[in-house]
Amino acid sequence: MGDEFECPFCHIVQDFRSEKRWRRHAFSDLKPYVCTMGSVECDLRLFGDSKTWFEHELQTHRCTWVCTLCRAASFRSSHAFRAHVNDVHPDLSESQARVLDQASRRALDLIPALDCPFCDEWEQKIRADMRGTQTGTMSSSASAAEVSEHQEGVSETESQNPVDVIVVERSQFRKHVGAHMEQLALFAIPPAMDSEQGDSQAGSNAAMQSAPDASSEPSGAELVWPPDPPLHLAAFRGDVNEVQRLIDDGADLEAGGETWGTALLAAEAGGHSQLVTLLKLGQSAASRDGHLESPMHVPPSPETRLGRLIASSLLLTGIVGTGAYGVVYSAVDTRSSIRYAVKCLEKFNPDGSPLDQRQVAGQTREIRLHYLASSHANVVSILKTVDDVDCIYLVMKYCPEGDLFYNITEKGLYVGDDELCKRVFLQILDAVDHCHGLGIYHRDLRPENILVTNGGETVKLADFGVATSSERSEDFGCGSTFYEPPECLEPKGPYYYCAPSDVWALGVILPPASWGEKSILKLSKDAFKLWMMMRKSKDKYLVR
């Protein structure tokens, strides 16, 4: 390794500096990994790396379900969990039940060794090695290194009681089963790929990709597609950065492949709408200019979308607000005259470049968590999502009376009315408690993200743009400074806990409601100043 040579599968000249890198590249071309669960919908899925393959099995098949609404005992199948939802939560709609199904999945940490679909010897080998270790003797067929390798990741309970089912950690299961599939793929490689005559009849991928002789007559044989180029693989995986790099390097968007046909179809098969948009823009640029260029799409200004009709009948009529994570429009259904709020999440950055994987994951997380929390009366409901070419629209219930900040500082709605303040704040507490019960942490609680309806009697929590399902976070500074707790303003460790962060923000929101005027700004700033003063004089202000 270390010399440049042409890969026999994808015909890309690369410099592989280690055998590990070469194997990883070769297997990405061979796609040896397949779903081993025997599910019909997974029969045609091929994976170019073991991590993606096994993540699919963990998220789709090798998992349990723990209801996030009632914390019921775990269920071993989607069918059993759906029966639980129908019995215990019959009021959920079909779409809400699907979201709950996804949110309640927990990947298995331990997997029976007997589940290996390729061999029966693995469990027997582990048992033999465990018996040999327990008696102080070593099986003649296994070395100490082999015993160590097999027992690494084996459940401690199973080690003490080998009569029970032997289970292993999922990382070891992936390594073992993946090795079987890699070996099968290597067996399939023709032995004469580098024939000096160059006329190998072994049917290799390189031979299939070679062009037919123009002078030959059509044989009527079945058309053989060339192997999938790297662009197809990256598009199917949803790797935005890799697709962009390949396009910049001149990858052919129209090139065919054996699995999906084109890169665009690969992205559609993988369910990556942003990449579908990116590839369509690239094809349009190539056909217009006669050559391939990196597709760019500068998002329009918020005003440009006014008057646009989405979902066949929803007309965007005004701008409610703008923020770092999207624009919120007012809209009206042209058929029913019902008004809605529509949040627009851009698929492209202001400079025209596509969102990276982290940004796409953030949008997906916002939609999923907000949709899951929508079942509460004091959370703004997401009614549906609309996936457009350049953005994703979230259609929500419209709250025309504005946010809590406006109602406190401009209208003085709650000034001196302690009973009303109490009722409203209890609604906020109830909504936050509901979210925390689902494992959702808002991380940006402030009056601007609480909407008012019913003449001030009802409030609703909104904007889950930075919400997370992680109990602790390393993402400091994602909320608003004056509502952040001390551990976020001056970190002492690598992470902070998200639930206490929400509670701190609630404490800053409560008092100004009955004070009126601009006191809400003063209190939030005073809370910040108080923390700064306590930080400088710990012995005076903090009781140990």
Automatic annotation (TrEMBL):
Q: Which keywords accompany this UniProt record?
A: ANK repeat, ATP-binding, Kinase, Nucleotide-binding, Serine/threonine-protein kinase, Transferase
Q: Where is the active site?
A: D444
Q: Which residues form the Protein kinase domain?
A: 314-544
| UniProt keyword annotation of Transferase present | yes
Q: Cross-referenced SMART domains, in alphabetical order?
A: TyrKc
Region (Disordered) location: 133-160, 193-227
Pfam families, from UniProt? Ank (PF00023), Pkinase (PF00069), zf-C2H2_AcuF (PF26082)
Kindly list the positions annotated as binding ATP: K343, E448, N449, D463
The EC number(s) this enzyme carries = 2.7.11.1
Origin superkingdom: Eukaryota
* Compositionally biased residues, Polar residues: 198-218
Q: Which transformation does this protein catalyse, written as a reaction?
A: L-threonyl-[protein] + ATP = O-phospho-L-threonyl-[protein] + ADP + H(+); L-seryl-[protein] + ATP = O-phospho-L-seryl-[protein] + ADP + H(+)
The role this protein plays is: Component of the EKC/KEOPS complex that is required for the formation of a threonylcarbamoyl group on adenosine at position 37 (t(6)A37) in tRNAs that read codons beginning with adenine. The complex is probably involved in the transfer of the threonylcarbamoyl moiety of threonylcarbamoyl-AMP (TC-AMP) to the N6 group of A37. BUD32 has ATPase activity in the context of the EKC/KEOPS complex and likely plays a supporting role to the catalytic subunit KAE1. The EKC/KEOPS complex also promotes both telomere uncapping and telomere elongation.
Quaternary context: Component of the EKC/KEOPS complex composed of at least BUD32, CGI121, GON7, KAE1 and PCC1; the whole complex dimerizes.
What this protein is called in its record is EKC/KEOPS complex subunit BUD32
- Organism of origin is Parachaetomium inaequale
